[in-house]
Structures are given as structure tokens and as C-alpha cells.
Amino acid sequence: MSDTTYTAAELDALDRIARQVDIDAPADRVWDLVARPGWYINDGDVEAEPDLTHEADGVAVVRHPKLGEFRFRTVALDKPRYAAFRWIGTPYRDESRPSTLVEFWIDERDGGGVTLRVVESGFSGLSKDPAAWLEEREGNDKGWHVELEAAKAFVEAPEAARP
User: Fold this and answer.
1) Domain count, the chain
2) Among the residues of the chain, which ranges form H helices?
């Protein structure tokens, strides 16, 4: 991506990722997953019992044996419709540096099930160099496709069949 030139409007549009997936499950079941900080730290399969601890001031720490330690601050929880978390520390970025905001919306669909929407925003604040933040955005853009499918599979599976 570093060889590409973008206009200011294009960079503004690239400052966020928006994805969604339809899930055949009730909103409360989807909420149980979405309200868990860092559920999307995995190898493509949501973990039923992740290594998740909570610290003071709404900070949660997710430890993954292969991916490392990730820290999140809970920004908002509005059961069962909206959850927001801020990445505050990753193996690639410490807590003193800017971070992105991850927001989830759960919308009931006519006929049953829900649409789970995610927006991750604030990439342009990660670095003054657009090439640097666009590279990080590119990885997350691919990741949200995988994570929403993982959420769908996890939530739609019978509880006894969940990993």
C-alpha cells in the first residue's frame, strides 16, 4: 500500500472499517459474545473460555498463547444493542500510543436472527505516516472478515458444541 497515493478524502474514508454479518441467533446470545472484551483475539475460532482478566478502570487483558497480550478499555455497554472498546495495548503498540475504537451493534432482523455490525475507527491517529497506519488497517480489514464469520459460527453452534 505504501506506493499508492491517496487524496485527503480517500484517507478520511479509509480511517474506518465497517463490516457486518447476519447471525441466526437471538440478540441476547450474540450480546453474550460481543460484550466480552477482545473476543476477536483468536486463531479464527472464538474461544469459549479465553484467558481474560479484568483490571481497574474498565481495562480487560486478553492473553493468547500464540498472539500475545492485548489490553482493552470498555467504552460503553448498552445491553443488548451496543458495545464499544478501545484497544489500549497490543504486542505491537503500547498503551502510551494512540489506538482505535471498536464498536459493535446488534440489530434484530425481521423474521428472526440479528445483524452484527462492527466499525473500527481511528486508524489515521496511529501514525503521521499514512503508509504505516494503512498497513495496520489492511491487516484489520482482513481480520474482521474472519472474526465476524467466527462469531457467526460460535453463536449459531449449540452450546454443547462450542469450542
Assistant:
1) 1
2) 8-13, 27-34, 130-156
> pTM of the full predicted structure?
0.87
| pLDDT score at 87 | 87
- Three-state SS at 23: strand
**Residue in the block written with cell 504505516:** 132
Residue 138: inside a domain? yes
Looking at the domain assignment, is residue 2 inside a domain? no
Asked whether the beta carbons of 138 and 1 are under 8 A apart, the reply is yes
Q: Per residue in 87-142, pLDDT tens? A: 887 656 656 677 899 999 999 999 999 999 999 999 888 888 888 888 888 888 99
| Contact predicate 145/17, CB 8 Å | no
Beta-bridge partners for 90: 93
Pairwise CA distance, residues 122 & 105, whole Å: 18
63 lies in some domain: yes
Containing structural domain, residue 110? 8-156
Residue 1 counted as domain residue: no
CATH of the domain at 31: 3.30.530.20
18: helix, strand or coil: strand
